[in-house]
Amino acid sequence: MGTRKLAEYIIDLVLFLTGVALVLAAQTIPPGSSIGIGGDFMPKVCSKLWVFLSVCLLLWEHSTPDDHVKGITAHVKSWFATLLALTLYVALLDPLGFILSSILYMFAQMCIFVPKEYRDKKHYLLFVVLSVIIPLGVDQLFEEVFSLILPAGIL
Asked: Which end of the chain has a smaller Cβ tally under 10 Å, C or N?
């Protein structure tokens, strides 16, 4: 087995085990509502979806051929930048609220992931538009459909 295949198996297994831990943790969340969907609904759905997708990744990895030639290509700077962005997102979620902190996080994450050749005015404009529209849509979805209020922060 090549190093790349082994690394992908390990990542998929870590994702699966993390998903199982999230499912178990989500089971301890009290519903918080006697009528309709409570605060435990989305964590339970998302954690089960996480497990399902990680199993799909494991099965897909098992069905793909092993590539002995290619090694592991790690982007350590991107990994640390993502870790920093996530840490800042969590730290800013309470004071700034879901919408503002999500806008900042999404823009930063898109800048981290997108290759340098796609970093121009046109793509930055797309990053800004997506970074604004998606958190606003998610906020509306949670308020209107799930009757859950996400952290408001300074708004």
From this structure: N
- What's the predicted TM-score (pTM) here? 0.59
In DSSP notation, 76-96 reads HHHHHHHHHHHHHHHHHHHHH
Return the structure tokens found at 47.
């954690």
Burial of 91 (0-12, 13-18, 19+ CB in 10 A): exposed
DSSP 9-27: HHHHHHHHHHHHHHHHHHT
How many beta carbons lie within 10 A of that of residue 66, not counting itself? 13
Evaluate whether 5 touches 61 at the Cβ level (below 8 Å): yes
> What is the average pLDDT value for the chain, to the nearest integer?
84
Total length of the chain: 155
- Burial string for 32-58 (b: 16+ CB within 10 Å, else e) reads eeeeeebebbebbeebeebbeebeebb
Q: What is the pLDDT of residues 77-111, one digit of tens each?
A: 887 888 899 999 989 888 998 899 999 999 999 98
